[in-house]
Amino acid sequence: MNKIRKFIVTMLVITMVTTVAPIWNVSANNTVGKKVTVTTKKKKVKRKKKPKAYIKVAKVKRTKKAVKVKVKFINKTNREKYYGEVYFIKKYVNGKWRKVEYGHGGKMAFNSIAYVLPKKSSAYKTYNLTYAYNKEDLQPGKYRIYVDYDVKARGRYATFRIKR
């Protein structure tokens, strides 16, 4: 019986040393009384890079008759990009982005055209929001305009505010 107990105790000690030692950064050669330092690696936070082709809102103009958004298309790539007439907007409501329905019964038609944006250049286009939306739906608040631009999803929209 003693032989079995000794064997089990020996196996437990071996198991503990092999599983705990790598965690504590301890080797079998360490002796009692030595200081052991434990090091941990810090995780690097990956930041999203700004896309090389994107849009931003240059100006928002609200009058009695219309709401216009001037968008700047930026292309820092070595290829030409294309943008068009199609757009839609979302409004920030209760912590979520909600699509604003088009006026005129929810249906809208746009010209299907592709404007060329040469490499390493920028261009401006003004979108008249009251063309596609009812003026009453364009109340003060935080909005995003999504445009037809041949870039990755993050570069296709820009945030703006409509003020009183």
How would you describe this structure in keywords?
164 residues; 2 domains; single chain; 16% helix; 2 helices
Mind explaining what this structure looks like?
With 164 residues, this protein is an alpha+beta fold. It has two domains: 1-40, no CATH class; 53-162, Immunoglobulin-like (Sandwich). It has two helices and eight strands, in the order αββββββαββ. It has helices at residues 2-24, 129-132, and strands at 53-62, 67-75, 81-93, 96-99, 115-117, 121-128, 141-149, 157-162. Strands 3, 4, 5, 7 and 8 form a five-stranded antiparallel sheet that branches. A hairpin with a 2-residue loop joins strand 3 (81-93) and strand 4 (96-99). The termini are far apart.
Mean pLDDT across all residues, rounded?
Answer: 83
CATH class of the largest domain: Mainly Beta
Say what the CATH topology of the largest domain is. Immunoglobulin-like
Strand content: 35-45%
Which series of helices and strands comes N to C?
HEEEEEEHEE
Brief summary:
This protein has 164 residues and is of the alpha+beta class. The chain is 16% helix and 38% strand.
